Fold Carboxypeptidase B.
Amino acid sequence: SHDYTKYNNWNTIQDWVISITSANPTLISRTTIGNTYEGRPMHLLKIGKSSGSTKPAIFMDCGIHAREWISHAFCQWFIKEAVSTYGSDPKITSLLDQMDVFVLPVFNVDGYVYSWTNNRMWRKTRSKKSGSSCVGADPNRNFDAGWCTLGASNSPCSDTYCGASVESEIEVKNVANFIRQNRSIIKAYLTIHSYSQLLLFPYSYKYGLAADHSELLSVAEAASQVLGSLYGTKYTSGPGATTIYPASGGSDDWAYDLGVKYAYTFELRDTGYYGFLLPESQIKPTCEETMLAVKYIAAYVQKNL
Ligand code: 0X9
Ligand code: ZN
Ligand code: ZN
């Protein structure tokens, strides 16, 4: 059964998505943005107090990469904290009164299932390609942002395979379609990965700085500082290309170039001791500190609507 301080498998997450939505009808609504390659539903939760009119929104996804289990855990934690502190935490209350937060708890569902059943270190989707015995593409190399030009591979067997074409992966297409359709209301795009303790922003597909570089950097540095205030966890912030590595086809760069100014990639704990195999004992502290940074960015976005 579901436990916020443990890693939950897809069936448990799916049951939890249904039950937390029905338990919080005034704060959560659920839609499906499409199905995965293997036919699983991609549940999207909208967290916010309904106001009768369309509200500005933040979009956040977890689990683009299958093996980054702390990411999936964070989206569940975020939803729990949001609904359980609405009405008592002034920041969350004000945020959810004025804005909606769209949360995609598991982006790469098929890959996540495979990381539980077959290969704990699986990263990609599970799409099949004729002419290759290798499976899947890297969803974070499959967006339309300098697609397959840098830090991505043309080889279907690579872990950073960019896919046969832009948005060839149905999961990427579903997310991109949703964001395109809601482009006018989406003010921030947050994507949760692990590991390395980084807060990244555009660009990664090129070395040139984003037009909003100084604002993106100062928000990232302030968010990293509040994150570290809880347990002393050290984060580095900066543009992806120079802070982690150049890599094209990422969701953050794509969202930014679409016009979503506050586009951030979180790389959660740790710095490599456990890496993707972060122990369950670190779920709570990791999620609590990350909440502070996400709430900081959300409050900043809200203040600057
Ligand atoms: O390489 C990635 O996709 C991300 N790192 S991870 O270890 N989680 O795979 C970093 C993504 C940074 N942003 C872009 N490359 N656009
Ligand atoms: Zn990742
Ligand atoms: Zn808490």
